[in-house]
Structure formats: C-alpha cells, structure tokens
Amino acid sequence: TPSPRRDFIREMVADDVATGRFGRGPATRFPPEPNGFLHMGHAKSICLNFGIATEFGGTCNLRFDDTNPATEDVRYVESIKRDVQWLGFQWDGEYYASDYFEKLYEIAEQLVQKGKAYVDDQNEEQIRTNRGTVTSAGTPSPWRDRSVEENLDLLRRMKAGEFPDGSRVLRAKIDMGHVNMVMRDPLLLRIRHAHHYRRGNDWCIYPLYDFAHGLSDAIEGITRSLCTLEFKDAREIYDWLVHEAGFVNPPTQIEFARLELDYTVLSKRKLLRLVNEGHVSGWDDPRMPTIAGLRRRGVRPEAIRAFAETIGVARKDARVEYATYEHAVRNDLNMEVPRRMGVLNPLKVVLTNYPEGQVEELEAQDYPHDVPKTGSRTVPFSRELYVDRDDFMEDPPKKFYRLSPGREVRLRFGYLITCTEVVKNEAGEVIELRCTYDPATRSGLAPDGRKVQGTIHWVSAAQAVSCEVRLYDRLFSQADPDDVPEGQDFLSTLNPDSLVVIADAKVEPSVLADPVGSRYQFERVGYFYAEPEGSTAEKRVFNRIVGLRDSWAK
Ligand code: ATP
Ligand code: MG
Ligand code: MG
C-alpha cells in the first residue's frame, strides 16, 4: 500500500520505509514533561507522532520526559494519559525517562572512561559566562583536564550524595571553540538533592534535557525523533551522544514549527501562571487552550484532529489564525449535532388570538437539508412564547426582517405572526410584545402567497427549561498576547469578557430527554454543550463551544 506523503516529515519517513534504512517500521514517540496539562501545541505533536505510526504501520511510544524533580507530578502524568486517549490515540509502550537514570549514569561513566566527559567544579553561572559568545570562543574550565581516575571518583561521589547542590556538574568534553554554542562542553548531570515523584530520594544527580532526551529515544529504538524548531541547535549534541554511547543505527531528529495560535498562549509555564494566579478556574477551565479545557468546553476530539490536519507541519514558525481553529470546530459540529431552539435573552410574546390554555406540538427537524442525518422532535407551542430581544426593534431600518410593530415574521417550524402592540414598563423598556398569529400558516407558508422574509427562533414560555448559559470567548484580547510594551506581560492582554454568564436562558424542553454531555446547535445562536458539572434532571448548564460565525473580526 502506498504511504501517504503529505509533508516533509512524512516524506522522510516514507523514504526510511522505502530504503529499509532502519530495518523495521518507523518508531516515534510523544515525549511530554509531566509538569502541566497538555495543550493544543501538544495535540499537534500527538497527531503527528501517532499519525505517522498508524499510517506507516509503525509504533508510537508515550514517554514521560520526567528528569526535573522540581516541577513534575503524578497528577500531570494521569492527565496526559487521559488526554492522549481522549484524542483518540493509544500508545505502544509507556515509558519514563526517570526509569533510564541507571542506564544514563552508566553511559556517563563510559564517557568519562573514554575521556569524553569531566567533572567541573565551576558553578552554572561561571560556566555560562565562560561559554563565550557567537563571535568569540569560550574559556576552558580549569578542571577540564582532570584525569579519568579523578573524574570517575568525583562522579561516583556526586552520585553518592557527597556534594551539595550546584557544587559540581558533569560536562561533555567536546570543543570550547565550537561554532554551535550547544557543543561547548554541554552539561550532562547536575546535583539536586530533591524528591522525584517517581524515583523518590534514590537520586541526587539529574540528567539535563539534552543528555536524557536523545539517549532515551535511542534506548527505546525510536527511528525519527520529531521535535520543535527551537531544538535545531541541539541536533548536534543529540547525534554526538547517541554515537558516543555506541548505539548502532541511532535515531535522528527532525524539527518542525511549533503551533502558535492567535488569542491564546501555548506554553505550560504561562498556562500555569493563569491557573496559579486565579485568572481561570483551573487547567480545565473551558477558556484554556488545554486538551482538558477544550473537552470541558464541549469540543470533540475529531475537531482537534481535523484542526491538526488542516494546519499540517512546516519548517517555519507561523501563527495560526483563530478563525482556522474555530472553523474546524464548527465544521465538525455542523455535520454532527442536532439543532434545538434556545433563547438567550428572552422577551415575552403573547399571541392575543391564540386560545388560552391550548398547547400544540409542532414537528421540528433536527438537521438542515445539507447535513446527511435525519431525526425530528416536537416542540410545544402556546399562547405565550419567548423570542430573543435581538429579534425585535421598535424602530427598525428597512431591511430588518425580524419583529417590529406591524411587521410579520415566521416562527421557525411554526406560524406567521404579526406584532400589534409593544408593552413597556415605567422606565420605558420593552417588556412584552402582543402579536396575532395566522392559524392558516402552520406550515410556515401563507395560503394567499404573501411573502414573509424573516424566520426567528422561539420557545413556548410555560414549557421552556430555564438554563444557565456560559458564553465563552477568547482568553486574550489581542492576537499575540506576548506583544506588549516593556514592563508589561501577557496577563495585561487578558480579555475581561472571556466569560459572560446568562443566568436564565430559555431552552426548548426536549433537551432534558438527552444525557448531559450532549451537544447542539441552538439555531441562529451557536453550538452548545450540556456541561455535566452543574446540570441536573430539571436544568442544564450550557457552555458555548463556538458561535455560528466569526463575530470577533469586524
Ligand atoms: P511548553 O513550552 O508548553 O512547556 P514543551 O515543549 O516544553 O512545551 P513538552 O512536554 O516537553 O512541552 O512537550 C512534549 C512534546 O510536545 C515535545 O515533543 C514538544 O516539541 C511538543 N510541543 C510542545 N509544544 C508544542 C507546540 N506549541 N507545537 C507543537 N509541538 C509542541
Ligand atoms: Mg520540553
Ligand atoms: Mg516546557
């Protein structure tokens, strides 16, 4: 079967397969650090790594890159596993870089034995300073030429816990004048007397990212290590380490552009600040760009996968427009979810010529004609209804095809009505409309052929369900939240209206027959999710997943 070749990474993988370069199917991995919840950027990487494994008949591991004891937690491990599975993927192996500490230590000793690593007594600050600049070579450490025996002794004592944090590091001995700064004797192991969420107090030396990452890939037999562009300079140390450690046919790194999405931030560090400083209710706040947040908002995993597919992978960084994301979400829901009627901002309508106490059940189609699904329900109709305030204007412009004094509109799935009287309170606010209905127009058409342009949604007042509706919007009010004047940070661009709660919206009663967690399009309003937390047998809490069109752009 021909392999799909859709982007430069799949091209390379297809070539690996064609040339038999690795002698087996492609092996990829998704390597999160368990220091936060996964976000949409991770979703891009997940879809890529797992997608390649599926498309080319290979494997994909889930590997926790958990080499930093200070920030990691088992709670994050659990959330990551849940989110990957929810996105629709199942890993082949589940691995932890912290399980490779012994193996990495062994490699460290081998490097020392070969004269390729040394213990440096400089602190990290001195090491940084002495690394030099792009235009000038670094200054070799005074400890660079220690004997193998002395290095081995010191390394063993580092491991045994004889030295305090920061007093010594193990460094690769490569080239202090190397054009690639990463290659100027990079740090491999550092001393941290810290509790690790998995390894407890077993270790007091911890590998640095560059030391652990490529070797973890090699240990697992990964063929291609897909990572984001900021690791481009690290590719040389990756190759150096897997080569020096003696791996035959080692993995190689391929870099791709990280996802940056307008009106949000995709960095665990920044998302953690939003959580810790209380700007959102938690990692799964429906405004968060986390997988958990999107799930709670009501987005389906199919939409996230489709979004990843749409943006594809590229070699150059570029921001993705929010509209591209919303389009993927709308597109998915449009084809999937039934239509209902809900009135967010209710205005009472009394049909003065409709018999008091009478209730009819009107047939309502669940899907429009261009969606290949069928289904219908009935909606009650009676003398008192609610319509949306936005669908009434007392003094409208000519092309306003909704309700106004003397004008006729069609009620969705129901009769034509004409507004005859506007009732106001003492403050002059409209509190009720009095209308007449035409009993001959139940089909929505007038027998005499008169044309009625507008159709509006409505609910029957007595049977409508009172619901809380949470209108979620973009978390930040500018496309690039980090583009701020000196002295400010991304938090200064938070959108103050990212959540508007409507306490008493009116929704047709059929929604109570569906389980919580159901999704709908409220006709003419948007897509909504019956949020499990807060919903009861008598009432629903609805999250707006996405509006019907891009209302943000003017
Ligand atoms: P953050 O900056 O949010 O902490 P990270 O890259 O440090 O992200 P990791 O847990 O190390 O987070 O990431 C796991 C994998 O997900 C890595 O392979 C990384 O390249 C990828 N990844 C992270 N963020 C993005 C992004 N915005 N776009 C694409 N891939 C990403
Ligand atoms: Mg990382
Ligand atoms: Mg990070």
| Percent helix range | 10-25%
**Count of the separate structural domains:** 2
**What name goes with the CATH superfamily of the largest domain?**
HUPs
The proportion of strand residues reads 15-25%
- What name does the CATH topology of the largest domain carry? Rossmann fold
Identify low-pLDDT runs: none
Domain Glutamyl/glutaminyl-tRNA synthetase class Ib anti-codon binding: 338-438
GO molecular function, one term: glutamine-tRNA ligase activity
Catalytic activity: tRNA(Gln) + L-glutamine + ATP = L-glutaminyl-tRNA(Gln) + AMP + diphosphate
Subcellular location: Cytoplasm
Summary keywords:
seven-stranded mixed sheet; 23% strand; 12 helices; Rossmann fold; 554 residues; binds magnesium ion; 27 strands; binds adenosine-5'-triphosphate; Ribosomal Protein L25, Chain P; alpha/beta; 2 domains
